[in-house]
Specification:
The protein is mainly α. Helices cover 69% and strands 0% of the residues. The chain contains 9 helices and no strands.
């Protein structure tokens, strides 16, 4: 359970720090880093923009479903599907409740020269709901995936966060806040999963997939 508790605690800390910084007036580096990621030469953007759109809501839904199905097939149980969907749904709900409280404008609305590479986004900026859902769902299904697929799930979640900044709809602090929510919810999902299945909730990227105690 140690890994799950660490993820839960780290997520709370990351989200809390990001929320405090946004509440007190985001630091200058937030806009600076946004510009560094968002404003790229046209030649580079021609390659990055189609790539970033792979991590759109549709791409995220397909990736989460694929990871869950792979985990179901490997574990021969619907438990990873239920846990992954529950974690993603909880992260979505928490992120949207936070958006209503934070009421932060989108960067393309206030940053001079910001490039919006998709249609205008709904809602406010902090935190990134896409990042929260991606991180939470990825962590929740880690114990059911082989190590290469587990690292792939984590990499996909990281790319979702990057794409939200690059496309112009979120600041880095928004992504950090969303990642914090995802880590906390994912860690909580692993704790619940460990209690239900009767084995320590240890993501497979930290070692081999956990085995159930057949004698219990």
């Amino acid at each position: 359970m140690a890994t799950a508790w660490m993820l839960l605690g780290a997520g709370v800390v990351v989200f809390g720090l990001a929320a405090v910084l946004v509440h007190n007036g985001a630091p200058a580096w937030d806009a600076t880093w946004f510009r560094a990621i968002n404003e790229t030469p046209h030649a580079v953007a021609d390659v990055l923009t189609p790539l970033a759109r792979l991590f759109s809501p549709v791409g995220l839904a397909v990736a989460v479903a694929a990871a869950a199905i792979a985990a179901v097939v490997r574990s021969r149980s619907v438990l990873p599907l239920l846990v992954g969907a529950s974690a993603g749904g909880a992260a979505w709900l928490i992120a949207n409740l936070t958006k209503a409280a934070a009421d932060r404008p989108r960067p393309y609305e206030v940053v001079a020269g910001a490039i919006l590479r998709q249609s205008a986004a709904h809602g406010t900026s902090f935190p990134s709901t896409h990042t929260a859902v991606a991180v939470a769902a990825a962590i929740a299904v880690l114990p059911f995936l082989p190590r290469p697929a587990a690292w792939g799930a984590i990499a996909f979640a990281v790319c979702v966060g990057w794409s939200r900044i690059y496309l112009g709809v979120h600041y880095p602090l928004d992504v950090l806040g969303g990642a914090g929510i995802g880590m906390a919810v994912g860690g909580a999902a692993l704790l619940v999963l460990g209690n239900l299945a009767g084995w320590p909730a240890q993501p497979s990227v930290a070692g081999a997939s956990p085995d159930r105690d057949e004698g219990s």
